[in-house]
Amino acid sequence: MQLEGKVIVITGASKGLGKALAQRLAKEKALLVLSARSGTLLQPLAKELDAAYFVGNVASEKDMRALADVAIQKFGKLDIWINNAGAWSPLTSIYAFDTDRAKELIETNLFGTVFGAKAATAHMLPRGEGTIINVLSTTALDGKNKSAAYGADKFGARGFTLALREEMREKNIRVIGVYPGGMRTDIFVEKPVEYESFLDPQLVAEKIVQNLCLDTPAEELVLRREEKSLH
Ligand SMILES: NC(=O)c1ccc[n+]([C@@H]2O[C@H](COP(=O)([O-])OP(=O)(O)OC[C@H]3O[C@@H](n4cnc5c(N)ncnc54)[C@H](OP(=O)(O)O)[C@@H]3O)[C@@H](O)[C@H]2O)c1
């Protein structure tokens, strides 16, 4: 797919993988709409990349509809929507499982993906084309020790992704699931982890963009830590 002139929405674009994707896609001359809950980092990034931006929460269906509206008002169409925003919680035994915290993760990582996809498809279905990318995690593939809450919401988001893909297949809307291994980002800021062996988010962004540029992109893109040498 040629990305020049494509209108691309990225949630969670102010930091980490979302920011790396925005910077990489700007090089392809895509027309970007960036979003996050705080404008502090988002606004200067949008200015630097000549992108539109919207401050909103993926856990709000209303905000996700408003984000799609920004893309339509500014650029008149919506080609690609990247559900990237996500949260994490420190590793804990299920005996210390914090239900309120787990609900927050589910609202962001699972419902955020659902609301983003609903907002995107509302505009893509009438045009009969579009691409949705859901950033999941290898935690959506493997049960990881002491990662019950994050694992539950990422497995949930994966289940949603697989169902959405089948429903959208006959509508000419492509649905791609991306499964990165650990990346060196601020997601771990609450309880830093030893992440020297983790992936550089810029490398993950590069792999996602390379896949998108293919005539037939992979529907399931698994980027494990061992693959960090793949450029
Ligand atoms: N880092 C890893 O090891 C790793 C591995 C596999 C998968 N992932 C996934 O990759 C994605 C990006 O993670 P990252 O590591 O780049 O995280 P990050 O550096 O912490 O960045 C998260 C981004 O999402 C935004 N965000 C968080 N909660 C949000 C909400 N409720 N509504 C809207 N925006 C929200 C943040 O901005 P605001 O705080 O201003 O909203 C920020 O822009 C996530 O889906 C994560 O689960 C990460």
Automatic annotation (TrEMBL):
InterPro entries: NAD(P)-bd_dom_sf (IPR036291), SDR_fam (IPR002347)
Any one of the GO CC terms: membrane
Recorded superkingdom: Archaea
Annotated GO MF terms: oxidoreductase activity
Any Pfam family the entry gives: adh_short
Keywords: Oxidoreductase
Family as reported in the entry's similarity comment: Belongs to the short-chain dehydrogenases/reductases (SDR) family.
PANTHER family for the chain: DEHYDROGENASE/REDUCTASE SDR FAMILY MEMBER 7B (PTHR44196), DEHYDROGENASE_REDUCTASE SDR FAMILY MEMBER 7B (PTHR44196:SF1)
Annotated protein name in UniProt: SDR family oxidoreductase
